[in-house]
Amino acid sequence: MDMPQDDNEHLMSDSRSSTEVDDSYYPQKPRNWSRGWVLHLLILGINIGFGIFMLRASRTSIICPESTSQESLEFGKLRKHELVLTEPVIEYQDQVFISSGFHRHAHDEPSIYETPRTHETDKAWEKLTTVGFVSLTAEQNSQLANSTVESLSRPGTYPVALGVFHQLHCLNYIRILLFPQEGDGKGETDAQRAHHKNHCLDYLRQVVQCHGDTTPLSVYYEKTHSGYAFDHAVTHSCRNFDKIYDWAAENAADLHIE
Ligand SMILES: *[C@@H]1O[C@H](CO)[C@@H](O)[C@H](O)[C@H]1NC(C)=O
Hints:
mainly alpha, two-stranded antiparallel sheet
């Protein structure tokens, strides 16, 4: 109990010294009064100046992402190791998933990505995976947790692929294996296919677990089966994929990896 008393005493003596000013200590009171104001104005000026500086600093990092370093990226729209250059195109939106396969609402039309495999379906999937490579500068590359190699055809540039596009490639690879057609898998040996298949499946497992989506999936009572079923067409909070796709298309680097 000694400490709080000590503290109280301290506070009281502090406040006494600042409020109970003995006039006799300050014979030239008017001058002192104006000095106080000068000091106040000075502090106010410093505060405003600092405020403007902070505002400019935060604006710079949002509008000019190239001035924000990969290392300074901690919290915000992007996760720590995502490419800082993509921050301006990250936008969240409510998105109602389509049931895909288990269509029970008349308005819930099958998507172009669903089977049966047609020329149109294959083209739609292909389009998703034709972008994704972007070129970094040496400086940007040096900030990555895992740096990339210098381009052979364009020295001074450093190619990387954005995760989402490789993930879509893997999903498409599995789709083709599930619904095989004449002419699939050209240029791949059986051994290569076995590795590729394993890679894509387990890679996607890690992606799903990494994102850890905790959106509640509601259920409904399915009379025909006398049991509950998932209502897959619920609202999720999603990144606007079109914006990411357009950015990747505009910034596409000339590189292809199988
Ligand atoms: C990427 O960086 C992490 C952390 O330093 C490291 O553990 C991992 O082995 C690196 N991967 C490659 C392919 O170098």
